[in-house]
Amino acid sequence: MKTKKQATTPITYDLIHKRAKAMEKDTTRFLADLVRTQSFSSKEKNAIALIKKEMKAIGFDGIKIDGLGNIIGRIGKGKRVIAFDGHVDTVYPGDLSQWKFDPFRPFVKDGQIWGRGTVDQKGGVATMIHAGKLIKELGLNDQFTVLFTATVMEEDCDGLCWQYLLNVEKLKPELVVITEPTNMNIYRGHRGRMEIRVEVKGKSCHGSAPERGDNAIYKIARIALEIEKLNQRLKDDPFLGKGTVTISEVTSNSPSQCAVADGASLHLDRRLTFGETKESAVAEVQDAAARAGYPDAKVIVLTYEVAAYTGKVYPTEKYYPTWVLDESSPYLKNAVAAYAGVLGKAPLVDKWTFSTNGIATAGMNGIPTFGLGPGNEVFAHAANEACPIEHLSGAVAFYAALVAKLNGKV
Length: 410
Description:
By secondary structure, the protein is of the alpha+beta class. It has 11 helices and 20 strands.
């Protein structure tokens, strides 16, 4: 039932923008609360509890915490389903000497809120939930079930949370909006990625007579040089850019430091552009090993199987597919129109450099997905992380305006 205010006040983009701006201080307060509540991957329990409390205070129509620990807030009960997603976990602060302040004592200064997670990506979580508040207050939704998923373990394994939501919880959204940082632009895709290990065997012997053995480190070093050359040969794409491969770790083992290594491995970070697949990437690495003279090197796509804070283990292969939403998508056109209407300018439509939960929604399952989030992604995982306050109200306004647009309210 509509309130008296909702019945007599016409819904306009200007009204949505003004209300989001009026909520700015409260949205900043909620984000600060989230930053104070440390929530590294698989340790998000307290942050999820804080979000549940906020959803209850707002009056969400339904709240559920699933077996993996994701929290799902619901507004409305329409047959059509759309979802806004933001991950709750953050990376660790790293070397504290690089921070000019305590990363978990947020503060506002120079028009920004400072602290770990303000950009990546508790700012997106806070704003989407407060957009839910605005959607309820102004009565912007009557056709959809609108879900707000605050998800876990993304930093360790992007998309795992949405694999669980789709495969176990059986969510069936027709659209997913990712709230990862975009500097308040609209992003419609990104490269995929893989984690690959290359292993070689050697033969150990005493280090005083290395000629008796077969040093695995020399083998892996030659393969590493071929991986460096491989990076130059990878595909390019006019929108997503070039595929890349880099070595992020080298390991070896031997009976002692006075012995020839009998095993060695490389850990590869592989970024996949449009047209590259798991199979093609593995074949290229196998070819690089063969070029180095070791066609029998083992090439393995790794698996993630870490317990969530709930204790649940939900294994997945560390292959995260590339995805792009077509420029002609009606969802994207509605998003561009809502952005221009509520923020007063045309958006830049672009792509992320890093990877998001879109690899599961769009990359694995073909669900139309795009994103907009507060903060500039260049500050993600960086010391002295900070998000502009105006981005918070802008994101709240956009999310609410998009729902209003999809409902035919504006």
